[in-house]
Amino acid sequence: MFDPRFWMPESVNALAEGTDSLFMFILWVSVISMVIVCGAMIILAVRYRASADVSRDRPPRDHLGLEVTWTLVPTALLGVIFFWGTRDYVRMTVPEPDSMEIRVMGQKWFWTFDYPEQGIRLQATEEVDAKNVSEGKPVGLVVPVDTPVRLVGSSTDVLHSVFIPSFRMKKDVVPNRYTTTGFRATEEGVYDLFCTEYCGTKHSNMITKVTVLSKAEFESFVEAAQEAASGPVDGATLFASSGCAGCHTVADVGAGGIGPALYQVFGREERLTTGETVLVDENYLRESIENPVAKVVEGYGPVMPSYAGRLSEEELTALIVYLKGLGSDKEAPI
Ligand code: CUA
Q1: Model confidence over 82-118: pLDDT tens digits?
Q2: pLDDT higher than 90, residue 42
Q3: Is-contact 165 192, C-beta < 8 A?
């Protein structure tokens, strides 16, 4: 219990070296304070119990030494915790020079990792992660070992939080602003990454991994990702990697799910929450991707995040072609 590994996995972040010692310091200060306070309570309660034969009419007296002690000792301890904590917080928040920058975007209910210098985007949805695991590829956020990384976080909808226990790192990602934090992984391996801010129905789906590769492996991973990104866009892949599959089913399994089932959606008459009906054509699909709350199907909530600006024109078209083909034997061109 008095070993940090009782509470957390082994720390593999060079920027968070002080976190465990500070945690143990606070733990010990708390334990010792508790023993002193509770010990005094018990001793006084026994000594001055109702049936005890002690004098009770002595007026209270000042005791300067005692008052100075119980003021100065806690102040000093809090001062130590404050400066120690601030030093480590600044070390993680202010990036090391030459940090590699990665933009992490939280959205309902998956993660996107953009690498502006490398020009690649990684998605961490349940489907993409499962596929990477089965193909033996790196999962989730992929970073090189012994390299300072600066994470710039934002959210497209509500509050999420990036939590990587092995890095002792937890940072909220917030709509309409950026938050930054940094790490330098010291060990290759696969570590957990959680969303730790309750963000809606599928909050618990926002689980992925951080994969720390050797520098050489990272280079070849980036090259492969750049190559894959330059190929033709495929609607089915996009559907899985953009998080659509988290809420919409595409197989012939009837209703259920957070969003409308998309099997044979094209050409269907949908009843909207306003009582109107709408014919599902290319333009309705496009509107529903870019501005999902405009025409919500009856029985569903306005919970889908907008994809406007997050899909290129080419991607949008590929996705609509894919949706049109669901449940029909031909993939009709748009
Ligand atoms: Cu995102 Cu919880």
Answers
A1: 999 999 888 888 877 888 999 999 988 899 999 988 8
A2: yes
A3: yes
pTM for the whole structure: 0.73
Would you call 67 helix, strand, or coil by DSSP? helix
Q: How confident is the model at residue 330 (pLDDT cuts 50, 70, 90)?
A: low
- What is the Å distance from ligand 1's center to 254 Cα? 28
Burial (Cβ within 10 Å: 0-12, 13-18, ≥19) of residue 193:
buried
Answer whether residue 230 shows pLDDT above 80.
no
Instruction: Name the architecture of domain 235-325.
Output: Orthogonal Bundle (1.10)
Pick the CATH number of 4-49+58-93 from 2.60.40.10, 1.10.287.90, 1.10.10.10, 1.25.40.890: 1.10.287.90
Decide: 206 in ligand 1 pocket, CB within 6 A: yes
In the chain, % of residues over pLDDT 70: 96
**16 CB contacts (<8 Å, ≥6 apart)?**
88, 92, 167, 168, 169, 183
Give the chain's radius of gyration (CA, Å): 28
Contact 146, 186 (CB under 8 A): yes
195 lines ligand 1 (CB under 6 A): yes
From ligand 1's centre to the CA of 175, what distance in Å?
13
Do the two domains 4-49+58-93 and 100-228 of this chain adopt the same fold? no
- Which class is 100-228 in CATH? mainly beta
pLDDT of residue 163: 94
Cβ of 197 below 6 Å from ligand 1: yes
Counting from 1 in the atom list of ligand 1, the atom nearest the Cα of 198 is: 2
Domain assignments of the chain as residue spans, ordered by start: 4-49+58-93, 100-228, 235-325
